[in-house]
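[job 4417] fold queue: 2 targets
>>> target A
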Amino acid sequence: MKKETDFNLIAPVYYPLSRLVFGGAQEKAQAWFAPSVSPSDKVLIVGAGNGAAATHFPENEVFLVEPSSRMIRLARRTNMGRTKIHFYQGTIEQFLGSSHETFDTILTAFFFDLFPQEKAEKLFVMLDKRLRTGGTWIFADFQAGTTGFLHRLLLNTMYRFFSYLSHITASEMPEMKNSWRRSYHLYGQKHFFHRLIVAQLWKKDRQEYQSSPADSSFSRRL
């Protein structure tokens, strides 16, 4: 029988291990565009882990969705300051199926890398339906299609590691750029850890996607 993805076993060491390997680059990537979010925005954080990402939205109402019970326990112990937090333990499919909430901002940080291409695209569509027109989507993850030998070796090792311990179903990073093209505009982009990790800020428009310049010189406050 195929096992479900489960981060309970790895939860206590996931973040220390991340900092050991990436030197804090993952945390920096998920926080980079947080200052661009209006304090009045309602924020959805998908695959919230230990909840540290919520600390970058101190004035916002934040919904944390995380399947791992141990991760949720860690999140509840995290000092969120004045942030109004809603905790939900379960998959994003379960959350969206039980809630009619819509959001001004969505953060997916190292979330899509857990899924094969087809599943990642389906999850994107589900989330897109809950993001209001004019809203922002903060994306932080590993670069798809990386060509460097050391990058490929590191990603392959990570996928093997998490496949064994957490039973993730992906074996490579899905390519998400085509999912944005119909109704999103790229406002900013920043690379980390020798360009293996990327943070992007997308704006949901009514118009069809149009390419725009975006690089690390983008102002972190729109």
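>>> target B
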Amino acid sequence: MRKQVVLVKPFSLDDEKDSEHTTSNLIQRILSLFKNVRPGSDLTNFQLPPQLNLPRSQLQCYGEMVYSLNGQDLLGECGRRDKPIERLKSIVTWNLSTLRPLIFGLAPYNPIVGETHHVSNGYVNVLVEQASISHHPPVSALHATHEKENIDVTFCQYFTPKFRGAYVDVEVKGKRVVKLLNQKETYEMNQPRLVMTILPVTGAHWAGKIVIKCLETGLEAELQLLSDSFLSRFTGNNKRSIKGKIFESSSGRRLYELFGQWDRTVTAKNLKTGEVEVIYNASENIAELKTPIVKNMQEVSESESAMVWSEVSEGIMKQEWEKAREGKRDVEEKQRESRRQREASGQSWIPKHFSVVRAGKDWDCVPLQPRVPQAPIVVPL
């Protein structure tokens, strides 16, 4: 008997106001989990009880960054611009839209090996796969294509969370690549860090520097998330502020200054003309996000996140914690049994949709198919 598919509303900008997950009761539960954890410990395989889980897998959160937008085709806009500088500005805008609010104290499920998430939104088709859990840390891969504008997106993500006593620092590794195939341009960018403060002020926010480069045009953008300062980790000041620049890589000549807050608006100032324009408005793009729906149940894969974790998610949403715990144990035991069978037969796990390759000290993920097909799960119009 096939499991049902449980889909939940993406966490969006407007949901933060209603979040009740920073209560003292929750904080006490979180602190109790860390009481025997030493500072500097690797938390990659740290297991949470369902009361501290969001009703979704990390793969779903990963995919939502690309397919969950409020009716805006920001990815397609990158390919519709005529000039290289305008295309880079559009890439910056799209990249900003992948920054989403975080709920302190609650985390998504750790994906199991082979788990997938496949969703379409308009012309954008997104496929995510947990390509490996044997590597340390585990590797997740994303492939997205824009049917109309001939755009290809690949992400490779793996992270290392470290407990630092007063906060948890999560280094998110792996590069993001956007290819505008009609223009023969490739944009490479890194990923920001995630910082979760516990004392004296609780919170979760993105931090660090984002660098976006296009080798073909010689244009580059840098975005500094100002929450990377030590003081702001504890005060919460400017935790979503951004400053940055767009410049020529070879000469270093600045073309634009960027400033604002990624959860509000980000503005670009043309340094030649002095003209100022808003290039990103969060309330127009990541607020009131719609819950995906199943368009064709027969085509939903058994490895689909929303199916793999359906019993756990349903238990969490109904606050039936024993049901959620049993569902979580079942998923984890099936994964352990699958691993035992592979080890007994001498077989290693081979991802279905990606080739996971070593790139120096890092990992890279190469899609096995040139295009992502339309998904049986879609974001409603």
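[job 4417] complete. Note on B: DSSP finds nine helices and 20 strands in the chain.
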